[in-house]
């Protein structure tokens, strides 16, 4: 196990994870290594390793024990993105061609599977097998969430319950696994581990709600084009709230999906953007952040708790640059 300074700060830890990724994503076969190298060119936010670090530190855990778990969490995240790009037929990810775009879907599936296997290799040596179980459960939920989303694609009658189930499974489950694992590494009391898990769930829900909201607020300067979810038949919270008030709008959705009429597309976007659903969606995200913060109030009050609060508040600040 790699030994790192117990007093290392978050940036230092994230750098260690980045180096550990390079160390572990190795293959003796050039054709495989080229793909790993391509993936490593994408500089991710390391959001999940950051949560694991803070969750370990807030419960006074040994940060040496967190490095391999954090690296595994990032591998799982990268694997899920590779598979997502195949499902969504995406060609660009973080400014670079996707694996499926460069090497095809079959290789993309296999590389994603390889990353999952590499993650399990890092997790299996831990005596506390609940860490491995926590991540395998998260992966299972991520897969189920994607299936549910695909089954409800192009469905204007998609319910709130279905939407929240999808975002909890697809997005929040992995964040919650990272937070919970920090408590497990620390051998924290059950109530603290549960608090961290709930923090991750509500943080993940807020994170995805804001991401879905930004899809309707995006402009030409943003990487994700405005209305991408609508175009792909993914009914998210702003659309669900609008459809609750304007049920006839469902016919416009179907008309657009069937005919891909530009005027119909713009009409739907405008009706959603200038409805009460935007503020309603933002308020829902704010409530999720409050639930997340409430969950960790009973944990030790220290700079790591402050950092978790700051991370949750930062999610909401993403919408500040937009007028609505």
List the helices and strands and how they pair.
Blueprint: H1 10-24, H2 30-41, H3 47-58, H4 67-88, E1 92-93, E2 96-97, H5 99-103, H6 105-123, H7 130-151, H8 160-185, H9 190-217, H10 228-231, H11 237-245, H12 249-259, H13 262-273, H14 277-295, H15 303-317
Antiparallel strand pairs: 1-2
Report on the architecture of this protein:
This protein has a single domain, classed as Farnesyl Diphosphate Synthase, CATH 1.10.600. Helices cover 71% and strands 1% of the residues. Helix 3 (47-58) packs across helix 8 (160-185), helix 7 (130-151) runs antiparallel to helix 8 and helix 12 (249-259) packs antiparallel against helix 13 (262-273). The model is unreliable at 1-6 (pLDDT under 50). The protein is mainly alpha-helical and 324 residues long. Strands 1-2 form a two-stranded antiparallel ribbon. Belongs to the FPP/GGPP synthase family. GO terms for molecular function: metal ion binding; prenyltransferase activity. It comes from Natranaerobius trueperi. One of its GO terms (biological process) is isoprenoid biosynthetic process.
Sum this structure up briefly.
With 324 residues, the chain is mostly helical. It contains 15 helices and two strands. The protein has one domain (10-317): Farnesyl Diphosphate Synthase (Orthogonal Bundle).
């Amino acid at each position: 196990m790699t030994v790192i300074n117990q007093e290392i700060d978050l940036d230092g830890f994230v750098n260690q994870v980045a180096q550990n990724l390079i160390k572990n994503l190795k293959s003796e076969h050039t054709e495989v290594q080229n793909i790993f190298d391509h993936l490593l060119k994408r500089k991710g936010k390391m959001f999940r390793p950051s949560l694991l670090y803070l969750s370990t530190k807030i419960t006074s855990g040994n940060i040496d024990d967190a490095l391999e778990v954090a690296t595994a969490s990032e591998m799982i995240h990268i694997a899920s993105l590779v598979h997502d790009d195949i499902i969504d037929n995406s060609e660009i990810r973080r400014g670079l061609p996707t694996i499926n775009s460069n090497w095809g879907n079959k290789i993309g599936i296999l590389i994603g599977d390889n990353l999952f296997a590499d993650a399990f290799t890092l997790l299996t040596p831990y005596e506390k097998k609940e860490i491995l179980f926590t991540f395998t459960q998260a992966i299972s939920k991520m897969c189920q969430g994607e299936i549910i989303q695909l089954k409800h694609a192009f469905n204007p009658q998609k319910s709130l319950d279905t939407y929240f189930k999808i975002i909890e499974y697809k997005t929040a489950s992995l964040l919650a696994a990272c937070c919970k694992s920090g408590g497990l590494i620390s051998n924290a009391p059950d109530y603290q581990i549960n608090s961290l898990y709930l923090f991750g769930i509500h943080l993940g829900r807020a994170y995805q709600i804001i991401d879905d909201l930004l899809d309707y607020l995006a402009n030409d300067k943003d990487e994700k084009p405005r209305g991408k979810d609508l175009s792909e038949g993914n009914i998210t919270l702003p659309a669900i709230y609008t459809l609750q008030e304007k049920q006839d709008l469902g016919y416009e959705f179907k008309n657009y999906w069937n005919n891909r009429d530009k005027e119909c597309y713009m009409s739907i976007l405008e009706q959603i953007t200038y409805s009460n659903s935007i503020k309603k969606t933002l308020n829902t995200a704010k409530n999720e952040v409050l639930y997340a913060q409430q969950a960790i109030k009973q944990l030790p009050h220290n700079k790591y708790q402050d950092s978790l609060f700051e991370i949750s508040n930062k999610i909401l600040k993403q919408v500040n640059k937009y007028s609505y």
